[in-house]
User: Which sequence fits this backbone?
């Protein structure tokens, strides 16, 4: 079976790769492009560990075919920090010790970024509802929510400075 | 076994040709049901036909007569549309109840309808808003009332080569509004145990002149319940009318017993949800749009 030739913008860089006709974006990211920051949890769209932004919209990469991203724009966890400088969401997750095993963390970062991109000043309730599609089995959610709310606040104050 | 192929046609005609040529072809919209089924089942479709590169299938247009929802428009896109929210608050709330933010970034209303689950949250609100499904097939185009699309769990009236292209939702008459409520044991991220969608039209004095009621997850398909609507029409949505409408919804329900709820619980709850959704729709209809 001939493989498909996919051209995409991945983390702001043009990327080309070959994939099977039916292969998930998650598998292509991890196994072909060596971007293993995106995690596989359930592989059925329930846990949020594989969250990425497709054309700036939050999607589960386990339910996207790699073939579908031809010509589209994809942002993964690897594209969120600016070089060595962590994104405020990443920094605040560290400061609040809002992770233990870390498998859910990349998904939470991507999902929280999608929230704050469209709503820089969410209520705690809005943040909890938005992040309901990301499951964490270690910390409970309070620390994660506090980190995200804190990140939102620091990003707003950076904006005004 | 042949591996599954992937096609991404850019016209409706090409999509239909591909689906007609291959009995095992599956139309792929958001993939939130289809790709999960693909993983779970040993049966493999011959091909996935991605619909999202066909312009007619993606996007929302509203004119004076109706809203046209491209069948492959992502749920999140609809939820962000200010006019959709204003004119069809119940429908948009139902769309916003589906899965997570991630799932709403992929899942579509057209897919929700074609997946034909009895618990599909968006189908009831489409039905009470008198939405029609635009289906194009080898024989040309036809429109089918949304209540007639699903025939049993997982089964629709779509034949080989048929494609759901769009949903047409008529613009509401003055003082008309909808509402949708469902019961789940959690606050979100779950499948309805029971649901009720209601649309009401009021006159200047608050008398109900038209109504539609549809109930979810209490029968093999989402059911339109004309008896419940009749109980509301001619009333001021007073307690007695609400009680009769709820009783009619409970009487029309023929639910299964399963881990989500027993038959009698679902029957009871669907009556309560019908009353409450009617109250919300009535309040919305009495406010300026």
Assistant:
């Amino acid at each position: 079976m001939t493989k498909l030739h996919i051209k995409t913008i991945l983390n702001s860089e043009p990327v080309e790769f070959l994939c099977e006709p039916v292969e998930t974006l998650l598998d292509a990211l991890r196994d072909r492009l060596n971007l293993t920051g995106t995690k596989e949890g359930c592989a059925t769209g329930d846990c949020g560990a594989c969250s990425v932004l497709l054309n700036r919209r939050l999607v589960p990469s386990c339910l996207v075919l790699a073939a579908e991203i031809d010509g589209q724009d994809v942002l993964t966890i690897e594209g969120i920090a600016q070089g060595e400088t962590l994104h405020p969401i990443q920094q605040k997750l560290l400061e609040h010790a809002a992770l233990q095993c870390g498998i859910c963390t990349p998904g939470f970062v991507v999902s929280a970024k999608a929230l704050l991109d469209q709503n820089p000043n969410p209520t705690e309730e809005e943040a909890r509802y938005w992040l309901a599609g990301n499951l964490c089995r270690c910390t409970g959610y309070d620390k994660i929510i506090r980190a995200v709310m804190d990140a939102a606040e620091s990003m707003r104050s950076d904006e005004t400075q | 076994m042949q591996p599954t192929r992937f096609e991404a046609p850019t016209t409706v005609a090409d999509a239909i040709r591909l689906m007609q040529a291959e009995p095992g072809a599956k139309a792929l919209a958001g993939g939130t049901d289809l790709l999960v089924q693909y993983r779970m089942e040993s049966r493999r479709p011959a091909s996935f036909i991605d619909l999202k590169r066909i312009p007619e299938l993606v996007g929302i247009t509203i004119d004076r007569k109706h809203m046209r929802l491209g069948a492959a428009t992502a749920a999140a896109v609809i939820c962000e549309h200010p006019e959709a929210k204003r004119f069809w608050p119940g429908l948009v709330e139902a769309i916003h109840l589906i899965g997570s933010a991630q799932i709403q970034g992929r899942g579509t209303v057209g897919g929700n309808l074609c997946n034909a689950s009895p618990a599909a949250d968006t189908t009831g609100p489409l039905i009470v808003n008198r939405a029609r499904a635009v289906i194009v097939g080898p024989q040309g185009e036809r429109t089918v009332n949304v209540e007639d699309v699903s025939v049993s769990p997982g089964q629709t009236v779509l034949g080989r080569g048929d494609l759901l292209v769009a949903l047409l939702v008529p613009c509401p008459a003055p003082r008309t509004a909808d509402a949708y409520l469902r019961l789940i044991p959690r606050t979100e991220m779950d499948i309805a145990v029971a649901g009720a969608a209601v649309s009401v039209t009021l006159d200047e004095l608050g008398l109900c002149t038209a109504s539609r009621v549809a109930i979810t997850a209490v029968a093999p398909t989402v059911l339109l319940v004309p008896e419940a609507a009749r109980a509301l029409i001619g009333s001021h949505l007073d307690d007695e009318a609400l009680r009769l409408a709820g009783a009619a919804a409970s009487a029309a329900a023929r639910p299964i017993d399963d881990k989500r709820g027993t038959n009698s619980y679902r029957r009871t709850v669907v009556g309560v949800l019908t009353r409450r959704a009617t109250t919300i729709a009535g309040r919305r209809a009495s406010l300026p749009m």
User: Anything to note?
Assistant: The first helix of chain A runs from residue 25 to 32.
